[in-house]
Amino acid sequence: MSDAVMHGHEHHDHHPTGWKRWLFTTNHKDIGTLYLTLALVMFFVGGAMAMVIRLELMHPGLQYVDPQFFNSMATLHALVMIFGVVMPGTVGFANWLIPMMIGAPDMALPRLNNWSFWILPFAFSLLLLTLFLPGGGPAGGWTLYPPLMLQTGAAMPFVIFAIHFMGASSIMGSINIIATIFNMRAPGMTFMRLPLFVWTWLITSFLLIATIPVLAGAVTMLLTDKYFGTSFFNAAGGGDPVLFQHVFWFFGHPEVYILILPSFGIVSQILPTFSRKPLFGYESMVYATASIAFLSFFVWAHHKFTVGMPLAGELFFMYATMSIAVPTGVKVFNWIATMWRGSLTFETPMLFAIAFVVLFTIGGFSGLMLGITPADFQYHDTYFVVAHFHYVLVTGAVFGMLGGVYYWLPKWTGHMYDETLGKWHFWLSAISVNVLFFPQHFLGLAGMPRRIPDYALQFAEWNFISSIGGFVFGLSQLLFLYIIVKCIRAGAKASDQVWDGAHGLEWTLPSPPPYHSFVSPPMVTDATAHS
Amino acid sequence: MAGPGDDPAANSRLAARNLRTALVLGAVALGIYVLFVLGYAL
């Protein structure tokens, strides 16, 4: 190694300590940790809002909060969980893992990486502080539909500014991930040798770059309608509020896949490890993921069948929605085939991954039901929709992330977590989440509308049961926090390999990995690739 | 496919390539945003 390069490395390794380390860091592991920590904090913030919602809905009648505050809780719970938990959480995984998985020393654009993260705390401060403004926080739902959203008080520009910040962060993060995967792969790491988690994030990044500017455009137009006299969505001025719904869902449906695809990737890493078999149908998994992403641009209007559209439009969006079941079915088939006749063991990451496959599929089926136009006229805006997307996002995206944390935590920290407590966390979560969300299918089918703080008496029993499930699920996540802290502070030393069935470059590094993952690039062959 | 290494010239080329990739993708994102809003505004 030349002196100049040696000096460069030495200089680069003199990273600051204390709070400056975290504020000024350009290291992918530090930034990954920051993203994951933010996601965990926001998980409890958004979870506390969910507890308020479930407490109010535990019994019929208005008990604890006024309807305006209830609506703010529902709106902010969604915005926090989507933009503050699942998106930063999966970006945290991407930051930690992609350079290690492809044999790179760091992300392609480390300073941009720092900026991508550090605008997020400001975004969420803006968003959450709206609760203390005159008129309270945003209460028009996370979809921000006009004209309801235009009635928001002083909170509205803050919410829109926060969404712009979050969007800018996501776009910069996506640019970094694409540049890293395109340009920083180790010799021999061809695209078809990439671990599936890397593939899912590559595809997710393109989805983000294509759709976040559309959301930014829509909320900018909302802002100008409110404050600058335009009439994009104002019928009185010649605009059309339905236009906003089209534009929003052109972003919103791909967003659903932005949330779930990285968890698909995580589960596709976990299942082969604990089945002690290669992932079944690797190439078909890649093509299925790309197909899901492509099709996601042609289904947006299934969110608004009841608004009214020509029959040809209804048929097109119904059949396009149905067609997404095909690549999704390929993925579920491949996950099951991976486990088929494998030497299965059921450590906590595997339990979460199996629960993901089962419960996400339930969410997928209810999604198919909602995609059938005539049936959707009954289900629309009922608790059936709430049940559906919570199966997809909680037992799908969040369970995938929880499994991923247990899977890679020993690699990240160098310590094993407490397996017994991990299993307790899994079983408490898996049982309570079904008590929480499964009855909401029944409530929706019986006609209970979404986004209401009070309801008719016939819905009382299932709401009570759902709330009990919600409280247990919420408390179970405190156990998760304890397990993480215990692992970091007092966990047994983890080996470099950690799991005997694990394959991939990240497992060739020490636990915890060095500050710079691969100072010299590894040579990747079929034997050292994903499986 | 470039990899990081001990060659400063190769590292410079890699940095330039990363920057080019970022600029192209950033321009795409900004272009969608601007065209979108202008498209409706005009």
Q: Would you kindly provide a written description of the structure presented here, covering whatever features stand out?
A:
The complex is a heterodimer of chains A (about 525) and B (about 40). Chain A is built from 15 helices and no strands. Chain A has helices at about 5-15, 20-25, 30-55, 65-100, 110-130, 155-185, 195-225, 240-275, 280-295, 310-340, 350-370, 375-380, 385-415, 420-445, 460-490. Chain A has a single domain (about 30-230, about 240-510), classed as Cytochrome C Oxidase, Chain A, CATH 1.20.210. The two termini of chain A are about 30 Å apart. In chain A, helix 3 packs antiparallel against helix 15 and helix 14 (about 420-445) runs antiparallel to helix 15 (about 460-490). By secondary structure, chain A is mostly helical. Chain B is mainly α and about 40 residues long. Chain B has one domain. Chain B is about 80% helix and about 0% strand. Chain B is rod-shaped and about 50 Å long. The mean pLDDT of chain B is about 85. Classes of the chains: A mainly alpha (about 525), B mainly alpha (about 40). The interface of A and B includes residues 2 and 230 of A.
Name the average pLDDT of chain B. 84
Number of helices of chain A: 15
Q: How much beta of chain A, percentage-wise?
A: under 5%
Main sheet of chain A, how many strands, which sense, barrel? none
Number of helices of chain B: 1
Q: Count the strands of chain B?
A: 0
- What proportion of the residues of chain A is helical, as a percent range? 55-70%
Report the span from N to C terminus of chain A.
Answer: 32 Å
Rg of chain B, Cα atoms, Å: 16 Å
* Helix and strand pattern of chain B: H
Oligomer: heterodimer
Outline the low-pLDDT stretches of chain B: none
Elements of chain A, N to C (H/E): HHHHHHHHHHHHHHH
**CATH topology (fold) name of chain A:** Cytochrome C Oxidase, Chain A
